[in-house]
């Protein structure tokens, strides 16, 4: 009883604070952030860390000055009023407060990335264009059932305009271009990630990872993580995002393409050069992949069969 009273008092105090908000909302709520003025920072719901006002519609527009920019957004807090409990997953966000995210094509045309609601903190997202828009919509206070959480403090996220797609390894060949070199002379082993590592990869993105071994070396990739949206045979015809491997600077049809949830376990090049290509389309995004790479000197192992090894942990993708 005592605990409940304290909670109600806290909520009441926050409510009083948020009552003053509507006067300043017009200035605070809709925001345009330009990379020239603020390359990185924090974006928050109105009144944060207090309760957000209801109803409310706030649009946050991020505009990168360079065509090479992408916007990376990582949430540190997310708590919107819970949707009615009986709804199925794809309907949950239709009847409650939401945060919708869009790529801005040519600065103004919206292309939806995803819409979030409830209290799970979304994974980091990245725009596929230099522009990103967030639309926060809070329904009127009375339109939600009593099962909705009383406490709704909104969201807080760090944003950053990047030209390297958030990559942590490899040498980018040009700003804004998703092409990274892995040179054995610089690092004999390491880890390669999909763009926006540990978050959802951006839509409509093609990345090439080029491996250059020293004479006599091959490269071996050992996958640690794999979540690439798609179904067999993992190509454009099946609306799939996919991962493709090649022993040449161009495509190599003898190695199957991969998508879905089952990673290729180990992939090895025939020779010193190897190319890994990741491609996402403009539909749903997964959380991508992480693979360790290791250059191996094969010049003293004449009996090793220098051939692509494709081993699969289970019914993964591939051309049948
Ligand atoms: C913010 O912009 C949206 C349209 O994007 C508009 O409907 C809303 O009224 C604006 N809110 C304020 C407080 O100006
Ligand atoms: C998009 O916005 C940026 C930054 O405000 C501007 O430099 C650029 O010209 C705009 N591009 C288009 C196509 O409107
Ligand atoms: C790899 O690095 C070495 C030493 O820095 C350099 O000589 C070589 O040209 C590099 N190879 C590629 C393909 O960039
Ligand atoms: C990875 O490379 C580092 C040096 O960059 C080396 O110290 C380490 O032994 C290598 N690890 C493996 C497993 O080869």
From TrEMBL:
Question: Is Signal one of the keywords?
Answer: yes
| Residues covered by the CUB domain | 29-162, 178-296
Which UniProt key words apply to this protein?
Disulfide bond, Signal
Q: What is the lineage of its organism?
A: Eukaryota, Metazoa, Ecdysozoa, Arthropoda, Crustacea
Name a single GO cellular component. Answer: plasma membrane
Q: What is this protein called?
A: Suppressor of lurcher protein 1-like 2
Task: Tell me the SMART domains matching this sequence.
Answer: CUB (SM00042)
- InterPro entries found in the cross-reference section: CUB_dom (IPR000859), Non-NMDA_GluR_Accessory (IPR053207)
What species was this sequence derived from?
Answer: Homarus americanus
Keyword Manganese annotated = no
Position of the signal peptide: 1-19
Which Pfam families is this protein grouped with? CUB
In terms of domain of life, where is this protein from? Eukaryota
């Amino acid at each position: 009883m005592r605990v409940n009273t304290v909670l109600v008092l806290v909520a009441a105090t926050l409510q009083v604070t948020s009552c003053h908000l509507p006067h300043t909302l017009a200035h605070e709520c809709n925001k345009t952030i330009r990379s020239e003025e603020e390359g990185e920072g924090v974006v928050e719901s109105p009144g944060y860390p207090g309760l957000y006002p209801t109803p409310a519609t706030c649009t946050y527009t991020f505009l990168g000055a360079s065509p090479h920019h992408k916007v990376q957004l990582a949430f540190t807090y997310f708590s919107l009023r819970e949707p009615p409990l009986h709804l199925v997953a794809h309907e949950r966000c239709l009847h409650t407060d939401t945060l919708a995210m869009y790529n801005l094509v040519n600065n103004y045309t919206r292309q939806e990335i995803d819409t979030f609601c409830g209290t799970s903190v979304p994974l980091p997202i990245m725009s596929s264009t230099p522009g990103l828009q967030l639309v926060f919509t809070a329904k009127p206070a009375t339109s939600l059932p009593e099962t909705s959480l009383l406490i709704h403090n909104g969201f807080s996220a760090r944003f950053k305009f990047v030209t390297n797609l958030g990559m942590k390894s490899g040498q980018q060949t040009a700003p804004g271009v998703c092409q990274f070199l892995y040179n054995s002379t610089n690092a004999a082993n390491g880890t390669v990630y999909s763009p926006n590592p540990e978050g959802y990869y951006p839509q409509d993105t093609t990345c090439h990872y080029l491996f250059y071994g020293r004479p006599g070396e091959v490269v071996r990739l050992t996958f640690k993580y794999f979540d690439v949206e798609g179904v067999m045979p993992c190509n454009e015809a099946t609306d799939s995002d996919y991962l493709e491997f090649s022993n040449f600077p161009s495509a190599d049809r003898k190695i199957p393409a991969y998508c879905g949830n089952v990673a290729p376990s180990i992939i090895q090049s025939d020779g010193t050069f190897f190319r890994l290509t990741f491609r996402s389309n403009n539909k749903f995004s997964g959380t991508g992949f992480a693979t360790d790479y290791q250059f191996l000197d094969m010049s003293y192992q004449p009996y090793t069969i220098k051939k692509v090894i494709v081993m699969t942990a289970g019914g993964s993708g591939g051309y049948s």
